[in-house]
Amino acid sequence: MENLTTPPSWTRIINSSSHPGDADDNPYKCVFDEDFKYVLLPVSYGIVCVVGLFLNLLALYAFIFRIKTWNASTTYMFNLAISDTLYVVSLPLLVYYYAMGDNWPFSVGLCKIVRFLFYTNLYCSILFLLCISIHRFLGICFPLQSLRWGHVRRARRVSLAVWAVTVLCQCPVLFFVTTSAKGDAVTCHDTSSKELFGQFVVYSSVMLVLLFCIPFLVIIVCYCLMARRLLQPTRGISRLSRSKKKSVKMIIIVLVVFIVCFLPFHVTRTLYYSFRSWDLSCQTLNAINLAYKVTRPLASTNSCLDPILYFLAGQRFMKFAGNKMPGKAQNEVALGIVPNSHLGASSDTDTLSKELKS
């Protein structure tokens, strides 16, 4: 029904499942049709929880008990697996929350922690993928320099710095996120209260630039340079070697995963926040609200895709329970780096390839 005291563009979309008072509390001045999310989010988060927990525990087992000598890539991947595991164990709370129709029966502190873990995992994943990409870039394009910069002890310090920066940058989430009562239900917001929403948008914009845009650009540059180097023909060999083809495929896979999981979420979230203050029709606002809700589970699927990348990065990783390795595999670098004989990868990665034997 059109509100005669407001412009026609603020025409409301009435949702039968809306709680009383939603229209007054909603910053859009529209009540959206969100029945879809009470099926989409519990199902998608439930799948991510089960699959992600299984794959990440499997990966952690391989890292801790089967890999004897670690290199820089292993260190980054191990920390990435820890981040993913911490996040997926919080998903049962969100599954219950959305299955109950946006009704949060737990404490305010637990709501803050669940939202904090989502954003911490999101940006930890981006930064650790950045570290892995830079390590591969140095190993392929600057093999001599990678001997110094790719040392495992330096990778451990970088990993600690990533955790410190991410946790520090996401601490404001614990301040902004809150709950609010709507009728008989309690909402666990993923943003903030109406009074603090403007400040939250500014904070989110800074995080968007620092923790997504800049790492994304660096990854693209690194992979473009790596692809150009890998596609250069080796002297005396007219066709790409098998290991070079594998490395090119890995570049494509990582970029696709990055674009599918992280890019849509950040784009729709930016539009979602920006459109709140614009005088747009409820149909337009409902469309961007729908897009944002759909891309949120996509951002969570990185917890399932990261372990798959570990397995694809090293052919021996999936066979960590075996007793023998083919002799040819000893000449390959274990976790996605091209063979030492072709591009002079760092010595610690070559050692890891040999130590992956069971």
TrEMBL record:
Q: Name one Pfam family in it.
A: 7tm_1
GO annotations of cellular component type:
plasma membrane
Quick one: a GO biological-process term for this protein? phospholipase C-activating G protein-coupled receptor signaling pathway
According to the entry, every stretch annotated as the G-protein coupled receptors family 1 profile domain falls at 55-310
Gene Ontology molecular function, alphabetical: A1 adenosine receptor binding; G protein-coupled purinergic nucleotide receptor activity; G protein-coupled UTP receptor activity
Determine the domain of life of the protein's source.
Eukaryota
Bilayer-crossing regions = 43-64, 76-98, 118-139, 160-181, 201-226, 247-267
The UniProt entry, under InterPro entries, shows: GPCR_Rhodpsn, GPCR_Rhodpsn_7TM, P2Y2_rcpt
Task: Print the keywords alphabetically.
Answer: Cell membrane, Disulfide bond, G-protein coupled receptor, Membrane, Receptor, Transducer, Transmembrane, Transmembrane helix
Q: How does it sit in the membrane?
A: Multi-pass membrane protein
Localization recorded for this chain is: Cell membrane
Note the PANTHER family from the entry.
Answer: P2Y PURINOCEPTOR 2, PURINOCEPTOR-RELATED G-PROTEIN COUPLED RECEPTOR
Q: Which family does it belong to?
A: Belongs to the G-protein coupled receptor 1 family.
Protein name, per record: P2Y purinoceptor 2
Query: From which source organism is this entry?
Result: Ficedula albicollis (Collared flycatcher)
User: Could you read off the lineage of the organism from its UniProt record?
Assistant: Eukaryota, Metazoa, Chordata, Craniata, Vertebrata
